[in-house]
Amino acid sequence: MADPVHALSRALKAAIVAAFGDEHAATDPSLRRSNHADYQANAAMALGKRLGKPPREVAAAIVAALDVSGICRKVEIAGPGFVNLTLDDAYLARELADTAQGGRLGIAPAARPETVVVDYSGPNAAKEMHVGHLRSTIIGDAIARVLEALGHRVIRQNHLGDWGTPFGMLIEHMLDLGEDAAAKELSVGDLNAFYKQARAKFDGDPAFAERSRLRVVRLQGGDEPTLALWRRLVRESTRYFEAVYRRLGVTLTEADFAGESFYNPMLPDVIAELSGKGLARESEGALCVFPAGFTGKGDEPLPLIVRKQDGGYGYPTTDLAAVRHRLRTLGAERLVYVVGATQSQHLAMVFATAREAGWLAPPARAEHVAFGSVLGADKKMFKTRSGDSVKLSDLLDEAVERASKVVREKNPELDAAAADAVARAVGVGAVKYADLSSDRIKDYVFDWDRMLAFEGNTAPYLMYAHARIRSIFRKAGVASPRGAGVALGEPAERALALELLRFGAVLEDVAATLEPHRLCGYLFELAGSFTTFYERCPVLRADSEEVRRSRLALCDLTAEVLAKGLGLLGIEAPERM
Ligand code: ARG
Asked: Is 322 a pocket residue for ligand 1 (Cβ < 6 Å)?
């Protein structure tokens, strides 16, 4: 592992155990960057309190037992009991060379690669994707990419809402419009209008409502002409979703669609299994499971309805079938659901039922990657002025248009084709990064000016930092000295090097927590360390050829890490901006 923090942590833990015994094996060495050395370990404070000893004495005992030969060149006790650690230059240079080697950038394949299902996007057929679907799509894609980069086998699953009672009314509306006209409307993404018209007729026209109900019965009964209409409806809307994915630069493809209807044939068996295990019972005419630990008002057990009174199956049944399929048939060990926080209880009940049924058992686990809402400037739900879901293709159009202005202002010399390409990358990148960079569980405010700013923790800032480094090489007409040795004299060089070495560990952290904002925060800090380095350390006009090569190698590695990091977030890093 390239990150020195790992090696230092291990050595410090061993020293703590050697000095104070096994019962302190779990002590956090509490390593931080330091102004006086490369790192400081603060463990002696907490340990001193626990042992009732002065922290300086504790620090001295740790240092006496500490073996960091080959890693550190200096170990000192400072202040009330900080252990200051300065890395050995040769060690650092070696780790950096290792990081740069073969373009791995310090990304180590997972020791135990897993099969991970990532359930994300999940829009509903014949309905506009709302911002929640946008968030799921962006966050899920970043998570899938990071897990894959670490060597896990990722199975993307797009749990499309393509079944259920609304399809009766949607099919009838399709027939009213004429099949081809309806198909056209859907494929260009006029989903809001289509759904609303159908809904209005359903609510206002009893004859239409009746036809719709009959249509649902035929659909569920497997009536072939009805199924053909349904298929067309679904196909046209998935075509629109695919177009949005392409524009967004999202890795989801047609092969990843496993909508609710996919599970239809499995539902009777799922029910039979739950009943057979004594988990499902009749309640008010419906068949329900009551997973332990979920209660409603007045402590009554909460039901998860697996078969409705009318004999139909709903969203919970489908999700139960999906869990079972993913574990049993796809062989997943980790199930990741990137779904809004509003569905927390639903998913928790599905997971609990899957555990009670014995489908979900360690080491397999299921995780809900929940996220908050997107708010408008007024701090209310992000909507169009008329109160509709924002149409995603309009949103992306606006992003690119706004980015185009910003990009032209920043660099009027870019030719038109390059400027267009950069504007596309910046516009889409800004929208994605704004979403990914905030702690996902919190709501965030959608703010065009902030996400498109070239300052702060934004996509344009990082993309520009990357392009600026590339331009150093272009202007000087030098190739990247990939693999050149580095010599770290200046503090700013060291700080940049230490930052570069963290990349692999940051990705592991993202894979463990499923929190992409940690990667954003890292890239932002890396760009900051680079700026400081570039201000303080002349690169092309360095004092010696050796220093120049070393600094160019640091520049190159920084650009590589920025581009790779952005890439894992699903954001392009143009060579020039
Ligand atoms: N279609 C659902 C919705 O719009 C999201 C699906 C999430 N995934 C799942 N396995 N339930 O709310």
From this structure: yes
